[in-house]
Amino acid sequence: MQDAEPVSIGHDRMWSRSPARRAPRNRRWSRALLAAGVLLVAAAGFALAHVWSPHANLRVTIGPPGSTAERFITAFAAVSKAQHPRVNLDLVRVDDLTGSARALEERRTDLAIVRSDAAVPANAQTIVILRRDVVAFILPPHSAVTSVAGLAGKTVGIVAGPLQTANARLLDTVLSYFNIPAKDVGRTVLAVDALAQSVREKKLAAVLAVGPMAPGEVVDVVGAIARATRGTPRVLALDEAEAIGKRFPGFESIDVPVGAFRARPATPSETVTTLAVTFRFAASELMPNVVAAAIARSILTTKTKLIAITPLAAQIEAPDPDDKSPILPVHPGVAAYLSNGDQTFFDQVQQYFYLGGLVVSLAGSLLAAASAGWNRRRSEAGWRPVRRLVEIANAAAGVDRAGLAALEDEYRAIVAAMLSCSSGLVGTDCLSAFSTALAHARHALDHRRASLEPETAVPSGPTLVVAR
Hints:
Structural class: alpha/beta
Oligomer: single chain
Strand content: 15-25%
Helix content: 40-55%
């Protein structure tokens, strides 16, 4: 009658000892998993902060060796590396302005030096203006030419160099405004001194020079012609400059003051209106506003240091944030920085960190919700056997022998299932309740078995057989 007792007691002892021993280890694993989750969220936060904070790995075009573009980019890279270690510049070598513009348009570079009249890429936006070059038609002393129309049928000299092709196209554009076919004006491409000699020999009606109102191509041509002719060269006035600029947005009108290219005797001898083109540091329109603003801020605030490396940096200027030109518009991030100063720049940076914080917070909330849901499901699964054991104990009092056998089988199945549970799935409180419910169910089953035994007991007294 007590045949099931040793088995059930054995199960009871196994359950009460083994899971209890595993409980501290389960808690350690849960804490380790929680710590790992927190570390993952923190790592994700640092990664997002790193990605969204103002830093960049930027590709920038650099011109042929010895070119103006190379000297400026080299200076900018040196200053940028010292001031902003998080901005890394990868230099992309190109042959000329056309190659620089093409590299930006084809997205093989992030930054490029472009000239406003030369193959401007459609996706380019201005970061800063590097230089403003005057388009000067230099005439020999006592020249009879008074307008561009007077160059028809004559020969114009062009300074040999990296920009000779771009300057030849510039000449064609100016001639087209005056309805002069390009073939009606001859071209001679020579070095500066050779051009001056040709002017002295009256082989050239004018020399086209494109350069700043500072040491550069125009100053060199004026000086060479003055020495060769022993006279004072003139700069051809283009009173139509503003109208030309409206038709061809790559040009703009500029007033050249007296003596801009030579002091004594002064060249020009009076203020002259002519055309100008601009060299610009341009970025792709896809560049984030905060990065574009950071680059512009870096260049404009370190201009003095750039000048110490190359005098060319003295001509750097900020673009007009209100300029609505369809050619090389100002990048929105740069326009915001120029309009509102450092506060807007730092506000943009703060927005990126704010977005990063939102993402990290959301990730943490999702992790916490997932952890809470998993713990709730684990708790429900752990308490389900406890509730069933209580139900078995309550049902045992009213079952017959067959029902008792079924409850015994379910009892053993519950014990076996709980003993096979993975470590960490059942909490300490649940284990304690399970042990109590297990003993309660065992007692109820044993009590019911004892109450059913008289019906199946063998009579202990002698049996009287009456013979007839």
